[in-house]
């Protein structure tokens, strides 16, 4: 019995040592490690991009770089960074979530101007995913308000993608009703009345529609919709492009307070800049994000449907205003469920 | 009484009375319902996990569980368990001893406190730890001053798991030690044994089956804990990803077979745990009758 106790305490001490040694990682043998905290639908994109960047960095600087990834709902990922998750870079679904990190003084509030194109190296939009041959004949946003349509989307309170979904529908409504706010509100509300499952994250909604087979239409990131086609085959689903949608700009930023402390500023900045290179843009396009670089846009032109796109600033002023009006507690979205 | 009934029925010795017939009938219905119920809710899903796991062939299965992210998740889960179980065992023995061997004010309060983790949702436990150790929390600034990372790293996951599994050992030991009484221990002391000798030679042999049982339950929960850990982990693959979190990640990546492969590995661990548990119960019973 004594031996057992001894064994246990040794095991405990050993494991504690192991644990403590695990804390001081950073530079093992000249390898630099950075953490990219991202949102759900970029898993596949960054898997490929990280490999390419590591190769590039090795060639340029002769240094090994290991990039760690964390994925989740955009809002909750921002929350984790605020709570102390040491992200060197954040690549989230919308500027608002990065602003939230900036509000805690973890990064400079002018972050959005530091990189080109509003610090959004790739864009996407919102489209519909329907079952093969479009049995319900869904063509545009109007069809989502019909009585017998079951819609799948996620909760705009927690999901970045869902905010884009909501704002895309709103923008279409404003156009349709000549900027009549009341009619637009009724219109968007009637879409949300048809929502059968309101998941907390975009990826959750996709699995609900695709794997669990619920709903007639999924309002989805364009890149998520394409990915579903790729994963499950084109004989199961179809992408429907609405006439008008929103230009979704997922933003990226270096987290100043973290890179300053860890001394990783150079590699973190290079990492984000590499997203803007032709290689980075190609990887984004291959993963169904719309590139910014003109040459890459031309090359992948046929891949993306033509949709009339409006930006958030054009229709809503800014993310802050959109949030205050629509998503804040007691905002327009809450009033749908009163 | 109950065992007598069973024995007699098995041997068909005496004539069944009307009452017996009735209980017999009730028993059969209950057995059928129980087995149906358990099959639908436990057995079928369990089998389904393995079916799904091997859906794309054993190649995909073994690739999924030997993938470096999966191995890191398994290692982290085992490390967390290896720290949590011994610590909670020591705590559990101390708490059970205090409660069953001493009279003091606030005993009931202590008992309720020990059971608190059963009552609190794990998600809330995780959130409380975030508030406590976070950058603006009570302890957060102190630890970051010392250069120790708690949240979103292994220590945080260990603390969350310890919180959730805290009651298991104490809960198992308290009734055992209460039933045992302190007569044997007092005899040992009066015969000149030191406190440690008494504990190792008298107390420990008496409680060992209860102790092992508690440790096994603690172990099972430590491996499987999702809620509290998911709040505090940060989900960095290869670093702060435990097995249950890894299953969720794979599922969200459309790697359904891989997700079920890791899930099946966890199910195997659970089955192993249950087998050991059954064996311990059998040994304990045997020892009691002997």
Describe this structure in words.
The complex is a heterodimer of chains A (338) and B (290). Chain A is of the alpha/beta class and 338 residues long. Chain A is globular, with a radius of gyration of 22 Å. About 5% of the residues of chain A have low confidence. Chain B has 290 residues and is mainly α. Chain B folds into two domains: 53 residues, no CATH class; 232 residues, MetI-like (MetI-like fold). Helices cover 81% and strands 0% of the residues of chain B. Chains A and B meet through helix 1, strand 2 and helix 8 of A and helix 4, helix 8, helix 11 and helix 13 of B.
Keywords:
heterodimer; A: 338 residues; alpha/beta; D-Maltodextrin-Binding Protein, domain 2; 2 domains; 5-stranded mixed beta sheet; 4-stranded mixed beta sheet; 16 helices; 13 strands; 49% helix; 17% strand; globular; B: 290 residues; mainly alpha; MetI-like fold; 14 helices; disordered N terminus
Task: Please give the structural blueprint.
The complex is a heterodimer of chains A (338) and B (290).
Chain A: H1 2-23, E1 32-39, H2 43-61, E2 65-72, H3 74-82, E3 89-91, H4 95-103, H5 116-119, E4 122-123, E5 126-131, E6 151-154, H6 160-176, H7 181-193, E7 195-199, H8 202-210, E8 217-221, H9 222-232, E9 237-240, E10 244-246, E11 252-254, H10 256-262, H11 265-274, H12 278-286, E12 290-291, H13 294-299, E13 308-310, H14 312-316, H15 319-327, H16 332-336
Parallel strand pairs in A: 1-2, 1-3, 6-7, 6-8, 10-13
Antiparallel strand pairs in A: 3-11, 4-12, 5-8, 5-9
Helix pairs in contact in A: 2-12, 3-4, 6-7
Chain B: H1 2-11, H2 18-53, H3 57-66, H4 68-101, H5 107-119, H6 122-133, H7 140-145, H8 154-165, H9 167-180, H10 183-190, H11 195-224, H12 227-233, H13 243-252, H14 256-289
């Amino acid at each position: 019995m004594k031996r057992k106790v001894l064994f246990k305490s040794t095991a405990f001490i050993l494991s504690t040592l192991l644990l403590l040694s695990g804390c001081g990682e950073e530079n093992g043998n000249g390898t630099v490690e950075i953490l990219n905290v991202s949102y759900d639908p970029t898993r596949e994109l960054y898997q490929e991009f990280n490999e390419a960047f590591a190769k590039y960095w090795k060639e340029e600087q002769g240094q090994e770089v290991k990039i760690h990834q964390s994925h989740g709902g955009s809002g909750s990922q921002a929350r984790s960074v605020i709570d102390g998750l040491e992200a060197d870079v954040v690549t989230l679904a919308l500027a608002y979530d990065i602003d939230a990190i900036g509000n805690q003084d973890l990064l400079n509030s002018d972050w959005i101007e530091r990189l080109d194109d509003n610090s959004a190296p790739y864009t996407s939009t919102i489209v519909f995913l329907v079952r093969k041959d479009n049995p319900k004949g869904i063509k545009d946003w109007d069809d989502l308000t019909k009585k017998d349509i079951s819609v799948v989307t996620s909760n705009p309170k927690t999901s970045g993608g869902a905010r884009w979904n909501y704002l895309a529908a709103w923008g279409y409504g404003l156009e349709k009703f000549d900027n009549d706010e009341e009619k637009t509100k009724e219109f968007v509300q009637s879409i949300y009345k048809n929502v059968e499952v309101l998941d907390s994250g975009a990826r959750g909604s996709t699995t609900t529609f695709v794997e669990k087979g619920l709903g007639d239409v999924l309002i989805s990131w364009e890149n998520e919709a394409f990915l579903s086609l790729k994963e499950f085959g084109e004989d199961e689903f179809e992408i429907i492009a609405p006439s008008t949608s929103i230009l979704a700009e997922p933003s990226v930023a270096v987290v100043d307070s973290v890179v300053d402390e860890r001394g990783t500023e150079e590699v973190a900045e290079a990492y984000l800049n590499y997203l803007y290179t032709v290689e980075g843009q190609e990887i984004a396009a291959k993963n169904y994000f719309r590139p910014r670089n003109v040459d890459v846009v031309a090359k992948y032109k046929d891949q993306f449907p033509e949709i009339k796109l409006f930006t958030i600033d054009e229709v809503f002023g800014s993310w802050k205003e959109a949030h205050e009006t629509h998503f804040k507690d007691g905002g327009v979205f809450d009033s749908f469920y009163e | 009484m109950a065992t007598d009934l069973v024995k007699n029925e098995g041997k068909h010795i005496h004539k069944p009375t009307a009452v017996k017939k009735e209980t017999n009938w009730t028993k059969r219905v209950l057995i059928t319902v129980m087995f149906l119920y358990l099959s639908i809710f436990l057995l079928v899903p369990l089998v389904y996990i393995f079916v799904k796991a091997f859906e794309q062939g054993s190649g995909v299965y073994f690739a999924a569980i030997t993938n470096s992210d999966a191995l890191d998740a398994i290692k982290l889960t085992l490390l967390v368990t290896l720290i949590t179980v011994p610590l909670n065992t020591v705590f559990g023995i101390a708490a059970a001893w205090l409660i069953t061997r001493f009279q003091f004010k606030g005993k009931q309060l202590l008992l309720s406190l020990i059971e608190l983790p059963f009552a609190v949702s794990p998600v809330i436990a995780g959130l409380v730890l975030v508030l406590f150790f976070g950058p603006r929390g009570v302890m957060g600034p102190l630890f970051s001053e010392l250069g120790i990372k708690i949240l979103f790293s292994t220590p945080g996951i260990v603390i969350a798991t310890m919180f959730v599994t805290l009651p298991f050992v104490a809960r198992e030991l308290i009734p055992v030690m209460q039933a045992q009484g302190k007569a044997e221990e007092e005899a040992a002391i009066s015969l000149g044994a030191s406190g440690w000798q008494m504990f190792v030679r008298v107390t420990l042999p008496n409680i060992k089956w209860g102790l092992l049982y508690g440790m096994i339950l603690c172990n099972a929960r430590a491996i499987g804990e999702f809620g509290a850990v998911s709040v505090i982990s940060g989900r960095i693959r290869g670093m702060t990803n435990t097995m249950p979190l890894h299953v969720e990640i794979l599922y969200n990546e459309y790697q359904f077979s891989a997700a079920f492969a890791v899930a099946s590995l966890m199910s195997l661990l659970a089955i192993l745990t249950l087998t050991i548990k059954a064996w311990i119960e059998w040994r304990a019973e045997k020892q009691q009758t002997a």
